[in-house]
Design a protein that fits this description.
about 425 residues, Aspartate Aminotransferase, domain 1, Aspartate Aminotransferase, domain 2, seven-stranded mixed beta sheet, 12 strands, binds pyridoxal-5'-phosphate
């Protein structure tokens, strides 16, 4: 095989016009990519320092079984997470089976009947509707007498400070702040903005617990919400901090009290953090965290590349090609179900696993309309790996994220572009 790089790209079915167009865009992104590399370098050192400080050693990779008493690896991993996120304690467990579950445990662990939950940043991520009881569900917070209030962001994406002030009352116990936009096209919040919001709500009621849904935000900036006053940060290990290597898991980092309360909900009152076997996956969790800053950098480059490509072709992208980034998600408003499905087909065809299957929209549990997902991932559902998903509803927006390397993200975007345009660029 003696191909040039462009010929290699063409062998994936990419039209030459698309390759030329994309290569030009890549060249123009050099200075932004350099900034991303600097953030990644900082976070790499942050993680390295946390591992050295907590004396991570070979013995911590040993498996435990059964109750998992005295699991040194698990306890050290949690100490490392607490160092990275600058918190008193952390719960990092394979028994937290997803981001939704981690959020569920953090909420149920820290709320009691009669308390009120407040979201000052609009409606939370879809899968929390049934956790909170926004849509009625057996076992929701609402069924346990925990009420919910929401204050939407203003038209321009700013916090509605007056509305938030009016919403905080004697029952308000926990404030949930979602960093990433999720399946909406609102702007993602920067860590600095989150810090301002936390400061504001605590100035009204100092004892409020501020929880941040940190999904997709980890290592995009050099600080995390827990550096600016969050009492709990919560996320999934099959997104950013698992680095693509964690096979399962979630984390809750925060104050000793919040983490302890969450641990009683995850295992049992009286048991808390003392139990929970790790069955031999601890090494993957350490190693995934270690490579995560670099993996996140690759995913961010892919997101900016996708935004620039689709911006240039006249599509609305959120964030657009020049806005600052606070998570790895790229929303592209494609405007028709056909284009959304084509985009996802292109991403699927670029996958290392299951590249030969065709994604179809389906009624996924936890969502209120059909959803299409492209994911040829090593870890099922892993969205730090190259993936795209879209609820099949107006305005037909596809959410693109991940890529374990920048180069994989790039070919994914090119194949999606090929499918959406059928190789005919209308420049
Ligand atoms: C992915 C995500 C969740 C839920 O995580 P799952 O692991 O899919 O359950 C919650 N909030 C946000 C903002 C997310 O992106």
């Amino acid at each position: 095989m003696n191909l040039t790089l462009d010929e290699m790209i063409a062998s994936f079915g990419i039209d030459t016009s698309i390759t030329t167009f994309c290569n030009e865009i890549e060249n123009k992104l050099e200075s932004r990519f350099k900034q991303i590399d600097k953030v990644s370098e900082f976070n790499q050192l942050k993680v390295l320092k946390a591992m050295q400080k907590n004396r991570v050693s070979d013995i911590h990779f040993a498996a435990t079984t059964g109750y998992g008493y005295n699991d040194l690896g698990r306890d050290t991993l949690e100490a490392v997470y607490a160092s990275v996120f600058n918190t008193e304690d952390a719960l990092v467990r394979p028994q937290l089976i997803s981001g939704t579950h981690a959020l569920n445990v953090a909420l149920f662990g820290n709320l009691r009947p009669g308390d009120e939950l407040l979201s000052p940043v609009g409606k939370p991520y879809d899968t929390l509707d049934k956790v909170i009881g926004i849509s009625p569900s057996s076992g929701s917070l609402s069924e346990y007498g925990i009420t919910y209030r929401q204050v939407d962001l203003l038209e321009d994406g700013a916090f509605d400070y007056e509305g938030i002030k009016a919403a905080i009352n004697s029952k308000t116990k926990l404030v949930t702040i979602q960093r990433s936009k999720g399946y909406t096209t609102r702007p993602t919040l920067s860590v600095t903005q989150i810090g301002e919001l936390i400061k504001f709500v605590k100035s009204i009621k100092p004892e409020l617990i501020c929880m941040v849904d940190n999904c997709y935000g980890e290592f995009v900036e050099t600080i995390e919400p827990s550096d600016v006053g969050a009492d709990m940060v919560v996320g999934s290990l099959i997104k950013n901090p698992g680095g693509g290597l964690a096979p399962i898991g979630g984390y809750i980092c925060g104050t000793s009290k919040c983490v302890e309360n969450a641990s009683y909900r995850l295992t049992s009152p009286g048991l808390g953090k003392e139990v929970g076997a790790t069955l031999g996956i601890t090494q993957s969790l350490f190693q995934g965290l270690f490579v995560s800053p670099q993996v996140v950098a690759g995913a961010l480059k892919g997101a900016i590349f996708a935004a620039t490509v689709f911006d240039k072709l006249g599509y609305v992208t959120v964030p657009n090609s020049i806005e600052s980034r606070h998570d790895i998600i790229q929303a592209i408003i494609l405007g028709s179900p056909e284009k959304v499905i084509s985009f996802c087909k292109g991403i699927q065809a670029a996958a290392p696993v299951d590249s030969f299957v065709t994604p179809e929209p389906w009624a996924m549990p936890g969502y209120d309309c059909e959803v299409i997902m492209a994911a040829g991932a090593f870890i099922q559902g892993s969205s730090i790996e190259l993936s795209a998903d879209a609820p099949i509803k107006q305005p037909y927006t596809v959410f693109f994220q991940g890529g374990l390397s920048w180069h994989h993200a790039k070919i994914g975007v090119m194949m999606a572009l090929q499918e959406v345009t059928k190789g005919i660029l209308n420049l």
